[in-house]
Amino acid sequence: MKYKNLNNIFYLEDLFDIWTTEQAKEKEYKNDKVDIKSFSRDGFVDVKMWTSPILDGKRVLYIAREANATGQRFVDDGRFYLKDEESSRKKRIFQRIIAMQNIIKARLDGNIKNEYTYSDFNEIKKQIAFMNINKRGGSSSTDFKELNKYAEKYNEFIKREIEIINPDYIICCGSYWQIIDHVYDYFKSRKEWENRKKSEPDIDMYYKLDINGKIVPAINVYHPAAIKRNQEYVDLINNVFDKL
Predict the structure, then answer these.
(1) Which one, of 202, 130, 127, 227, lies nearest residue 172 by Cα?
(2) For residues 22-50, b (16+ Cβ closer than 10 Å) or e, as one string?
(3) Residues linked to residue 206 through DSSP beta bridges, in sequence order
(4) How far is it, in rounded angstroms, from Cα 171 to Cα 63?
(5) SS3 of 176, please?
(6) Nearest partner of 129 among 102, 162, 107, 104, judged by Cα
(7) Which residues partner with 208 through β-bridges?
(8) Cβ–Cβ under 8 Å, residues 205 and 219
(9) What are 236's strand-pairing partners?
(10) Which of 8, 61, 148, 237 has the greatest CB tally within 10 Å of its CB?
(11) Which residues have CB under 8 Å from 79's CB, separation 6+?
């Protein structure tokens, strides 16, 4: 479906207002646990920091699949948890994201720490942006059929959110194939994917997207809530940055 005038939307809240209205119109939606109007707001943690010249060339957007709406009619109670100092620090997903951001900062400016203090966590998170694909929210276990359907249905909204955020790097947290395939529709068939793989052997690791005329690497990492050793995330990111 084509939505009119999304390119004329320049603020996330304006985009979210239209997005929630479209969600509410879904006649096929059937879920007695999560309300049709449930919507997880996200984006800039600190817009002043994000637009600061300090981050020129270093703006990192993290994209996850969906917020866990288990037991909630309205996901996240209308809050953007990463902005909330206490609750975000306790969430494993954000702890892992901050750890990954530390590695990326090391590659971009040579500044790395092995240990984090409370102030480090809140300072680093102000330098990133974060978004979910499925804004309505899902359960503790992702239903990929529903996630892919949502990504395809709202791909223009997802693209526009990414364009408004305008990152220099994208870290796909278990959302890589939804972004490069279902949202940006690069692969029309498995044969096309196999042909791309021959000419671009690193495509499983990263793909370069055109965002606002700027080439932005979209990097494939595990979902931050996955039971993995931190070193596995470090190795993934370092391997990609070695190739960029």
Answers:
(1) 130
(2) ebeeeeeeeeeebbeebbbbbbbbbeebb
(3) 219
(4) 6
(5) helix
(6) 162
(7) 217
(8) yes
(9) none
(10) 61
(11) 41
Return the number of other C-beta atoms located less than 10 Å from residue 195's C-beta.
Answer: 12
This prediction's pTM: 0.92
Beta-carbon contacts of 64 under 8 Å, excluding residues fewer than 6 positions away, are: 93, 130, 131, 132, 133, 173, 174, 175, 223, 224
Encoded tokens for 11? 């603020």
DSSP H or E run through 232: helix 230-243
CA 234 to chain centre: 18
Q: What is the pLDDT of residues 171-207, one digit of tens each?
A: 999 999 999 999 987 787 888 888 888 988 999 999 9
Q: For residue 180, how many C-alpha atoms fall within 13 Å in the half-sphere facing its CB? A: 22
Tell me the sheet residues that pair with 64.
132
Structure token digits, residue 51: 């637009």
